Amino acid sequence: MCFLEKGYHQTGVRDIAKRAGVSLGNLYNHFPGKHDVLAEIATLERAETEPLLRLLAKPAPALETLDAFIEAYATYLAVPENIILTIEITSEAIRKPDIAAMFVGNREALVAALTDVIRRGLEDGDLRAIADPPQMAWLILELIEGSAYRSVLGGVAIAGIAGSVRDFIFAAVRKP
Prior knowledge:
Layout: H1 2-6, H2 13-20, H3 24-30, H4 34-57, H5 62-77, H6 80-95, H7 97-124, H8 133-154, H9 158-173
Helix pairs in contact: 4-7, 5-7, 5-9, 6-7, 6-8, 7-8, 8-9
């Protein structure tokens, strides 16, 4: 919550301890510094993406899986705190490669699972020819995330945007 309210850079370890209702010493017993708190957030983020990874791994038709993923990921991102924290972490990660490294694995796991769905759709003949499935997977994630950012910034419910996002993605990948 401190990172959400004040930003990572402006949050001190004392702020975290106070917000958590623990002594500074107790916090240091568990986390040597705020960088370590951020590492724990990366671990928690991975746990939160596990249901998405399981959804993508289901042996359903690619378009059905993609549709379910778009809805599930948009629902996850509809929680403003998830978007705000993602933006805050991304801005710090751009400045500090060690922070980026903590979170890159989570994104790469989503991209790999989504790439597998795209390849399965290509093999089954459900998707149009896509020259670079991993790049398409990245673009799909970025479109959903960018729409969620716009939702939070503009105060528009993600539910009002998700249908257009789905239509755009399907137009890009579905066989004509």
